[in-house]
Amino acid sequence: MFSSSSHHSTSGGFHGNHRSSNLNATRVQSRSRTTDDPHIGKYKLLKTIGKGNFAKVKLAKHIPTGIEVAIKIIDKTALNPGSLHKLFREVKIMKQLDHPNIVKLYQVMETENTLYLVMEYASGGEVFDYLVAHGRMKEKEARAKFRQIVSAVQYLHQKNIIHRDLKAENLLLDSDMNIKIADFGFSNQFVIGNKLDTFCGSPPYAAPELFQGKKYDGPEVDVWSLGVILYTLVSGSLPFDGQNLKELRERVLRGKYRIPFYMSTDCENLLKKFLVLNPARRGTLEAIMKDRWMNIGYEDDELKPYIEPPKDVKDENRIAIIQQMGYSRNAIMVSLDKGSFDDLHAIYILLGEKKRELDGEAVLNAQLNPASAQSVAHGITQGQSPHTQPPASTGFAMTQKFVPRSTSAQVPSVKTRRGSQEQTITPAAQLPTTLLPSEIHVTTSPGTQRVISGVAPVT
Question: Where does the Protein kinase domain start and stop, copy by copy (predicted)?
Fold first, then answer.
């Protein structure tokens, strides 16, 4: 979703014509629009915030609620059958997810040639860009972020989903600097015992068994990537680097990485649970949640697996507002019960986001009561029945790259300073991968021989 790599170009198994199957997508009727009035459905397009080979991403505003969203616009005609299969798998997986630290999918729209994915917009940009701009995080800040990351990935594993492309570029920050995991282009379902064999993801974050071409269950490759992420947050650099893929592979397979002098012993010990060469000995996320470093400062709030709340589809306040926009109650309930990811689903979910944004039910009632909603709805749907299909696609040229961008007691959260509205994409190669000699000693992944501490670089 938000990666610099071309996620929809990898071939995979594909059978039959899946161009519009199992998406429950809203059909977008084509009609011309002026260039100064760019809309897709009920979204006003604001600017391009990412692009690649087969898709572009637009920052947009949801007109009924005023909420900013990110719309990924994908040219289906540019994708081969394997890439289409992977695209539809990504959408299917995203529809299953509801975690405060994972980017939400709001709506799916489709034409014959184009797929539109309307998603949560994380205005703080990528963690990668934050590190490039600000340098390494203090361990207290890194811990707050990493608790959110581990909570979200453990939630995925609970649902038998692996991400397979966890990296700093795919970790986004919202306006309150909370983590949002993005880009499920390489994600997949897994069954323990049914081995996977696809090498995917970013090489600096890839587990050693992937470099060796070995089959894997799934969660263990995410766990290794989390170790690389933890190291990167705390040190501002990557644990394994190389001038080329061959050199990187050799260093990953040796399992040697530098430990900065400022890294705490607790953090170093936690890294040893992630960066284990033998995948069978790598820590599980349930066990890692109990680690000492993970819970320093959270002694009364030990990190625990996230329990997904029941689906909220019966908020009468939101339903009444949508009815005032001209929709029938039956149509609303059918959309919500089926999880249709259509206009009605998006309006309902985004009204919930608006409620939180306005800080409470009372404010929502004051600003979005049925009487005012009627006038708002009139402005939104003037000249158009609320039951007609969404307005036309804008016919933009398609390319690919998505860059944007709680509140259960079991969900870690942090609010610090606000991030910038738009981040510059920086190649991963520009992230520093070396430290000053005075800052390091050398360690090894468990299962390899311990190297004596010193200032010599790892070779």
Answer: 43-294
Quick: pLDDT tens for 59-74.
999 999 999 999 999 9
For residue range 95-150, what is the model confidence (pLDDT) as tens digits? 999 999 999 999 999 999 999 999 999 999 999 999 999 999 999 999 999 999 99
Is residue 114 a contact partner of residue 396, using CB atoms and an 8 Å limit?
A: no
The annotation status of 72 as a binding-site residue, yes or no, is: yes
Question: Other C-beta atoms within 10 Å of 235: how many?
Answer: 26
User: What are the tokens at 68?
Assistant: 């900013």
77-91, 369-383, 443-457, range with the lowest pLDDT: 443-457
Could you tell me the two tokens for 161? 């989903």
- The whole model's pTM is what? 0.73
Dist. CA 431–CA 208, nearest whole Å:
21
Instruction: Kindly compute the dihedral angle of the four CA atoms of residues 121, 123, 127, 133, in this order, to the nearest 10 degrees.
Output: 150
Catalytic hit among 165, 241, 342, 343: 165
DSSP H helices in 339-389: 343-357, 361-367, 370-381
- For residue 234, which amino acid is it? V
Answer yes or no: are the C-beta atoms of 352 and 318 closer than 8 Å.
Answer: yes
Residue 165 among the catalytic residues: yes
Q: Distance between CA 87 and CA 185 in Å, rounded?
A: 7
| Rg of the chain (C-alpha set) | 23
Q: Which neighbouring-strand residues pair with 71?
A: 58, 118
In the chain, % helix, strand, coil (3-state, to 5) comes to 35, 15, 50
- Size (the chain), residues: 459
